[in-house]
Amino acid sequence: MDALREAGVLLPISMLKSKYKHGTFKDAMKAVDFLHGSAQKIWHIEPIMYMDSDLRNYKTISQFAIDPIYADLDEFINMGLLSTAEIFKLDEEAEKKFDAHDKELIKTEKIKALRLVYKRAYQDFTKEAIYQEFIKENEYWLKDFALFMTIYNKKNSFEDFSEEEININKYKDNLDADIEEEAKFQEFLQFLLYRQYLKLKNYANNLGVKILCDLSFYLNEFSSDVWAKKDYFEVDNKLRPLNYAIKAIEEDKDLNKIDKRLVYSFDFIAFDSYEYIKEKYGYYSKLFDYIRLVDIEDYETTIKVDAKTMDADTISADKNPIEEIFAVLKENDIIDKVFTDYIRCNSKIIKKIMKEGKVFESKTIQDAFDINADEKSLPLNLDKTTVYYSSDFDMKELDKYLNSSSDMKLRIEDYTMKKNFTTLDIVERMYSSNASKVIIAIWDLLDDVNKRTRELDLDEIKHKLETILKQYMVQFLR
């Protein structure tokens, strides 16, 4: 475990200003330069895996594939494989959507362009050793994902799959030339994205910046992982979920409106010697320098509801093999990269695992101020294995108390040691805490520097932000 104190920012790549209206891996280079110039060591990004049709970062159709929306087309223009005249050819209606940052349109247009790259350069790229290495190292998920995409582009759910399509082995036995060609394109597309992301990561690491990414526990019900490895999940032979996983806070909500998360079949995963855990977390440990496990309580207990009825009376809870999971992470040298958040979790098992594994605990300002003032979790009492988070949601909550005489305001005053505090005062106090890691959301500072917009132009604000962050780093390093 790296014991050095480090600070960083939470800044989604998608927010970065781009001529394609959605941040790309090339645009992300500027963010790395900004972090380096601000003496920051950690960059917390949002998940970059392949989003489903809802285009939400935490709902993906693969735990492994990278989303094409992050692709940098300029690289291929510079290589002579694309021309500016043949990409993003939009009519008036589409232009309006593009100007409104329509993710579906942006992704669709990028995939069209990358198909041209495939037609023009597939033979050349596949001769490179790095391509062959990529195919070999990712064989455990890549080919199945590529085949899944040959159906996914035409179907909206597993219910739409034919009897032949629903069974991956039957589907593999009946591939025609068109399907094989499309699967080759999907593999090639993932190679291009992996290559661009790796270039970004190496650039960041060479400047002393480490990349941190969130990892959700559960999977979307419609994904390549389920199609390829159905025995790992509680589904029937037609991939229909038997149960859905829900969070404790959702038990009193309308269960028909919650996100559909699949329940793992841990009996089979254990029978298979936890290979899926090794593959999934091992892959993330290669992609990212740090992994933040979202909702750690899900690792200990699965709360589930019958998928057919979605009736609250069918809610039950199963204990998960959390100790075995973390033992696998430790045995495979992944544990040193793990952050997790259990501030609201009273589980003795989780606390024991975190302590023995020396896993970084992450806390947020909002959680810290919401609990009893005598609790050890208050920011003033953070220990040195803590990751201290600030976020957009936290700031909105804190703003409610800026002009109040509530106890909350008094706590913030005590925390910042200022009566007329701003978000900058809160950030400054974070940096001067005892925490090993401090992560702030970049937009926490934007109200004090510039108005937050749909996209963030680092060129416009980086000078003042760099000055602010460097100033706080002096305190952080004391």
UniProtKB/TrEMBL annotation:
Enzyme Commission no: 2.4.1.25
Substrates-to-products reaction catalysed: Transfers a segment of a (1->4)-alpha-D-glucan to a new position in an acceptor, which may be glucose or a (1->4)-alpha-D-glucan
A Pfam family annotated for this UniProt entry: Glyco_hydro_77
Gene Ontology MF: a single term: 4-alpha-glucanotransferase activity
A GO BP entry: carbohydrate metabolic process
Alphabetized UniProt keyword annotations: Carbohydrate metabolism, Glycosyltransferase, Transferase
Regions annotated as coiled coil: none
PANTHER family tied to this protein: 4-ALPHA-GLUCANOTRANSFERASE DPE1, CHLOROPLASTIC/AMYLOPLASTIC (PTHR32438), 4-ALPHA-GLUCANOTRANSFERASE DPE1, CHLOROPLASTIC_AMYLOPLASTIC (PTHR32438:SF5)
Family: Belongs to the disproportionating enzyme family.
Protein name: 4-alpha-glucanotransferase
